[in-house]
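Ticket #4471: structure export looks truncated?
Reporter: QA, pipeline team
Priority: medium

Steps to reproduce: submit the single chain below to the structure queue and open the exported record.
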Amino acid sequence: MKKQTLAVTSELLKIRHSPIVWTTFIAFSIGPLMGGLIIFLLHADSPQTAMLTKKAASMDVGYDWNSYLGILSQVVGVGGVMVFGFVASWLFGREYSDKTAKDLLALPVSRSKILNAKFAVYLIWCSGLIITNLLLGFLIGNLLGLEGYSHEMLLTNLKTYLLTAAMVTTLGTPIAFFALYGRGYLAPIGFLALALVFSQIAGAIGLGQYFPWAIPGLYSYPGAVFQSSLTFTSYLILVLIAIAGFTFTHLRWNRADQN
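Actual output as written to the record:
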């Protein structure tokens, strides 16, 4: 247990001064900021913003907490797939790009512990993104003076937000596998791009509930129309993909030739 803790600490020290960390937080914060802008435009009377106001109104977004928290959930369900996937790509692919993979294997720590440490840091990193976006959302909502607050509404939206975030986080395990398989950033980012494209195609033809990368977006969408399309099979597929990604990542790291 002590070696596992030291491995996690070592991974945290690697990212402490990396600009990539702050880049992901800034990129992810665009969602709440744009959501706040859309809400603001709904009540903007300026002639300069008239066209933008019409576009915002066409999105059926009200000037209330329920609409804004719904936007935050969609940001995680769609944008989180890209940002969290980038985090996994960087964490698991950087050792090859920096030529330090062999150095890791020379340490008196098992390969599994090294990999578990990376997964732990991935969870910590993604949790930080999830929490800070939620806090930023509350700050923006208060500055805008949004209406319609209630404890019941808050709990319902928090449940949607957190469950969506959890689903998106689990999808990082296949990305980790492709980072090890491709020995760098390109393979996982390429796979992520394809996953995002196919999630749009699957949703367009009515099969999004069976495609893992489309499921969080469907769940995060306000109203019961899209959530009702998700079945037990949808969630089972998501869980199996996450488990498969974790398992094959370990198999690749422990058994592959690391020359």
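Status: closed, not a bug. The export was complete when the record was re-opened. Leaving a note from the reviewer for reference: Residues 2-255 form one domain.
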